[in-house]
Amino acid sequence: MVVGELTLARALEPEARAGVGGFVLMGEPAAATGPALRTALSDLVSAAAAAGRVGPWLSTDTEGGPVSRLANILGTIPSAREMATEWTPEEVESAMRARGAALRGLGITMDLAPVLDTAPPTDPVADESQRSFSGTPAVVAAYGIAYAAGLRAGGVVAVGKHFPGLGHASADTDTGPATDAPLAELRGTDLVPFARAVSSGIPAVMVGHPIVPGLTGGLPASLSPATYVLLRKTLHFDGVAMTDALSAGAISAAGYSEATAAVAAVRAGADMAMVDASTWEPVVGALVHALSQDAIPRAQADASVARVLAAKGVAVCPD
């Protein structure tokens, strides 16, 4: 569930008690609000526990550079491109270990990073020239893996994004439809860092919304079964696959509401669908209805729940 402002965290206790799997906290709180934020996030976890729910992931976007949530509280960090230019992978891992510990100290348990897209330094789309580590796949892989390892050492779950890659997309999927490079081209570029990050054990991958010729059949990647087959069967990823925000322009341009997109994404193979807090109830209703009609197979839903619980460290009954 995407929350527009970090200061709204206290208002989300009913959703926590209802069993929301995670909150994505956006906005930029003021410098002096760290203690209040820590208390609000702790209260969310307590509300979930009091209702007998599994604790939600508490996440934000702290990539560095132009996307640096909590910079007012924790200070700024360089962009991915600057990290790869100025630091070694070992220095990135050390810096992200410290950042992860600082995030965890606030109650944040998941960072929607690193960006594993492979983008040239002249890419004008969605700040990819700064958000991507490099235009060279091997460099992206080395730095992305180091970034994720640092977060893990700091106690925070890393999320590699935006599978199968936005480094060659024609437009920003947040604002409208975008076409990516063909799958044959992505195999030698954007897919390389994802494959290596999966091999290194990254626990979660965010699936983006570009249309990929040769893969998605005209659908946004997040809604295409072929995308998840590529991720699961070709890259052998067995962690949590979540969608990028389904409030994106690329989704509405394809003719979907957040509720219909969530059903399509889960049916296609996503374990978690990211939706705005304002649409959470109709989304849940649509998913429950789809399950009741076998539009989403029960075994598939059970497998997704098991992956999420395993990533959260919750023991799963073998039955």
Structural account:
This protein has 319 residues and is of the alpha/beta class. The chain is built from 14 helices and 10 strands. Strands 1-2-3-6-7-8-9-10 form an 8-stranded parallel β-sheet. A two-stranded antiparallel ribbon has the order 4-5. The longest helix has 18 residues, at 89-106. The model has no long low-confidence stretch (mean pLDDT 94).
The CATH level-2 architecture is identified as Alpha-Beta Barrel
Report the total helices. Answer: 14
Fraction of helical residues: 40-55%
Classified in CATH, the superfamily is: Glycoside hydrolase, family 3, N-terminal domain
Q: What is the oligomer described by this structure?
A: single chain
Termini, distance in Å? 29 Å
User: Which class best fits the helix and strand makeup?
Assistant: alpha/beta
| Mean pLDDT over all positions | 94
Number of strands: 10
Text of the CATH class: Alpha Beta
Main sheet summary: 8 strands, parallel
- Content of β-strand: 5-15%
Brief summary of the model shown:
By secondary structure, the protein is α/β, with parallel strands linked by helices. Helix content is 44%, strand content 12%. The longest helix has 18 residues, at 89-106.
How would you summarize the topology of this molecule?
Blueprint: E1 2-3, H1 13-18, E2 22-25, H2 34-50, E3 57-60, E4 62-64, E5 67-68, H3 71-74, H4 80-86, H5 89-106, E6 110-111, H6 128-131, H7 137-153, E7 157-163, H8 183-186, H9 191-200, E8 204-207, H10 225-234, E9 240-245, H11 249-253, H12 258-268, E10 272-274, H13 280-292, H14 298-311
Parallel strand pairs: 1-2, 2-3, 3-6, 6-7, 7-8, 8-9, 9-10
Antiparallel strand pairs: 4-5
